[in-house]
Amino acid sequence: MPSYEEVRYHFNHHDPFARHMGIELLEVGPEHGVAIMPLDERHRNGMGHAHGGAIFALVDMTFATVSNAAGLYCVNAQTNISYLEPGRIGPLRGEARKIRSGRNLGTYDVRITDSDGTLVAIATVTGFMTKYPIQQKDA
C-alpha cells in the first residue's frame, strides 16, 4: 500500500480536475486531512464570491485526504453540504475528519474556511471504499 505522502502526491499530480481548479492536498492521514484552493476569477460567481461548485470541488478533494489514506480508492457516494457564508478571501482551506469507517462505507466531516477564518461551508460526506489500489504513476 502507498504511504500517506504517496497518496498525497498521486492526487496532486494525477487528478486533472483538481489541478485545473488549483486544489492542493497538504495533509493526508487516516483521521484528518487538509486541502487548499486559490480563490481567483475561475472560482468566483457573478457576485464575486466563491462559486458553490468550486466550494463543492474543494469539499470533495478534502474528503479524499482522509478517505483514500488507506491506499484504496474511495469515491463520493453522497454529500450533504450547507453553504454558510460567501467565500470572499482566498485561498480557501478544507479540513476533513473521519467520523466513522466500516468495511465499505465511511462518513467524513468537511469544513471549508476562507483565509480570514470565516466558516464558508460544512459537509458530511459518505464514501464508498472500492477494492482498487491507488496506483503510483510516473510524474
Automatic annotation (TrEMBL):
Hydrolase listed as a keyword: yes
Alphabetized Pfam families for the sequence: 4HBT
All copies of domain Thioesterase, residue ranges: 47-121
InterPro entries in the cross-refs: Acyl-CoA_thioesterase_PaaI, HotDog_dom_sf, PAAI_dom, Thioestr_dom
Keywords: Hydrolase
GO molecular function, one term: acyl-CoA hydrolase activity
Name the UniProt record assigns to this protein: Phenylacetic acid degradation protein PaaD
